[in-house]
Amino acid sequence: MGNIHQIHLQLIIRCGVIFSVHLCITGEASLRLQTQRKLRHFFTVLCGNLRALRAGTNDGQVALEDIQQLGQLIQAAGTDDMTDLGDTVILVTGGKASHTVLFCIHTHGAELQDLEGLTILGQTHLLIECRTAIRLHRNRRDQENRAKNDQGHQGQHNVHCTLDKEELRLCHVSTDSQHRKVKHVHRPGTTHQNIAHTRNDERIDVASLQQDEWFEVYSSVDERSAAYLACGMAEESGEPVVLSCTGATASRNYIPGLTEAYYRKLPVLAVTSTQDISRIGHHIAQVIDRRVIQNDIALLSEYIPATDDSVKEWSNTVRINCALLELRHRGGGPVHLNMETTYSRDYSVRELPQARMIRRVMPKDLFPELPKGRVAVVVGTHRKFTDPETAALDAFCSTYDAVVFTDHTSGYKGKYRVPVSILSSQEKDYCDLVSMDLLIHIGEVSGGYIGMRPQEVWRVNPDGALRDTYRKLTCVFEMEERAFFERYADTASAGRQGYLDACREELRAIWAKVPKSALPFSNVWIAHETAGRIPEGSVLFLGILNTLRTWNYFDLPDSVYGYANTGGFGIDGYISSFMGASWVHPDKLYFCVAGDLAFFYDMNVLGNRHVGRNVRILLVNNGKGTEFRNYMHPGAAFGEAADDYIAAAGHYGNKSRQLVRHYAEDLGYEYLSAENKEDYLRQLDRFLAPGLTDRPMLFEVFTDSRDESDAIRIMNNLNVSTKGVLKEAMKSVVGEKGKEMIKKVMGR
């Protein structure tokens, strides 16, 4: 077995802000520095931890020679405690001189008692004993020599960022109790060396920056003054400045200076160290609560837990990217990172992988080039596209031979639309069509269960927020979608649609495999018979989970638009939302598909006196929350026992044939019902009658949850391929831990 190490983070930040952030491994408190060209103005941070993740006694074992083949099947979707010191650090660029400046506060925290239990970090270099101190003031010749040395790297392209700019990688910083400073630098072509260390690993990183010729390091005797010094430097240089300190009350002294930075919109990054938040409130020395800060000392405050698994690695990557981007966002201002520090005696890691950088692009910025290869657009829940928006997206797809993956809530009805849910849901197939080099993500929360395997994701939205749905986000374009697509589209290009043709052919093939006669009477069968027959120009509201899933298997007429309450993604209120929408256009037909629990939860709206004749409700009554009885839901493992509480069966008359009928008819609705396929087809023409009827309509259909589950299983296994079968077999053998291990080995 190969050891898989979970790293903290390494962020490569460009364009003169924080050029790199990396949360280093435990056992290697080290500075990794790589440049492609001579650097001008930049700042750096931080700290980190790594833990070795080895197979336990109950974990699956995979031979190394099999990992390469198995890795191709994986969808890449992300100690001991000690007393904190009182060290403080400020990093700042040196303006025209290309210097970065670091301020540090000498240690004045509590002395440690248990030296035996402290971390000794390997793979670094003890400069105190075997290296001379670096010059903090470089001259012109130093700069010229560096420029010559870096020329050999200028032709390299960083796959994690589309900008052809310099690259820097750094570690965390601190100072020891005798105010000696130690550092470790890794440059292209150099190797890691060892450092002897007996205190907090933050000191190693302070020393790392002190001894690095790219930085100027200054010492301040108190944190309050340091924060104001940062304000002055940020104002004068126009560059971000970094403050760094450990736990206890050290960070409290930042508050006045950060308040000044907040109201002057100065880009100051405060990085504080903390122990695990579980220790808060238990009379543990130097453990204070910094989880909540005043609203006017930072634009954003993020807690960064120790990275000891892939989920935290992904989450921390996004959080730190958010923080760094916020320094300059919409005027900018101070930002706070409260970073958990842990310790380990594992010194085995020799190389740190590159972390993912997320860049924000504004309308006036230089736009990156699209990566070579397959390009696709995926649309979450979205308002109806306007004609100019559709034209811009279609022109983009034509230029790059791209497609637009949608579900019924996507609002896009253009030429390149691909209702992909049925393809991406196949359990025993490995659909290559949902693999792409670049995925452009627009819209909001999707209920379409659209599985994608992108190499890189760009997010386009006016809010500029980092929505890392597919965990491959590299660029956020803060702008209207139309502006983005028009910027990249070539209106003179010929209409290319090879990708679209392949997707359409696959869709036709899989829809032909749907066994109409074998499908049990269920929401799936109902959607199969009904979706394509919804009257032209109508609106379709769908309930979440089971209803969204089943109806997304099939396409709707081009003029029919679908909606769902996917924002909060709850069952409550979507019938009311449907009713409210129907009031806007009383001459247009509005259809709603609801499950029984959601219907009864929101049934009072049926009695509203404004309900119009354009309302049609399809109630699928299976007597429970059938989502929790579907074969793929964890609740299915409980069998019939799940009905007691998980699926909440037996309420509201337990599928009473009279309850809804009386309620609807008493309120003036036309009531229809069906208990089998023949009944349903006999009533369907009436329910789908075009034009307004004399009164609103409610069609209650009684199904069985077991039939619902069986129907979904059939739909999810229409396509079977050797690669897909191997994928499923691997999942059952190695489990989730095994999957993560293989991803790490494969660099996925």
Structure description:
The chain is α/β, with parallel strands linked by helices. It has three domains: 4-153 and 163-357, Rossmann fold, CATH 3.40.50.970; 375-508, TPP-binding domain (Rossmann fold, 3-Layer(aba) Sandwich), CATH 3.40.50; 514-715, Rossmann fold. It contains 19 helices and 29 strands. The protein has a seven-stranded mixed beta sheet, with helices on both faces. The protein has a seven-stranded parallel beta sheet with strand order 15-23-22-20-16-17-18, with helices on one face. Helix 1 (64-71) packs across helix 19 (722-746), helix 5 (223-237) packs parallel to helix 6 (255-264) and helix 8 (387-400) runs parallel beside helix 10. It is globular.
Keywords:
748 residues, Rossmann fold, disordered N terminus, seven-stranded parallel beta sheet, seven-stranded mixed beta sheet, 3 domains, alpha/beta
Q: Which class of secondary structure composition applies to the elements? A: alpha/beta
Indicate the low-confidence ranges by residue numbers: 1-65, 75-204
CATH architecture of the largest domain: 3-Layer(aba) Sandwich
The largest β sheet comes out as: 7 strands, mixed
CATH class of the largest domain: Alpha Beta
Strand content: 15-25%
From the alpha-carbon coordinates, what is the Rg to the nearest angstrom? Answer: 30 Å
* Strand line-up in the sheet with most strands: 10-8-7-11-12-14-13
* CATH homology group of the largest domain: Thiamin diphosphate (ThDP)-binding fold, Pyr/PP domains
Average pLDDT works out at 75
Counting H and I runs of at least 4 residues, what is the number of helices? Answer: 19
**Number of beta-strand segments:** 29
The end-to-end distance, rounded to whole angstroms, is: 18 Å
What is the CATH topology assignment of the largest domain? Answer: Rossmann fold
**How many domains comprise the coordinates?**
3
Helix content: 25-40%
Shape: globular
